[in-house]
Amino acid sequence: FENGNPVLIFIGRLTENKKLDRLVKAVRELNDEHFYVNLMIVGAGVMSESLRSLAQNLGIEDKVWFYGECYDESILNKLLYNADLCVSPGNVGLTALHSLSYGVPVITHNDFFTQMPEYEVVVPYKTGLLYKKGDKVDLKSKIREWFILPVDREQIRKNCYSMINDKWNSLNQIKILQEVIKE
Question: Residue 47: which pLDDT band, with cuts at 50, 70 and 90?
Answer without folding.
Answer: very high
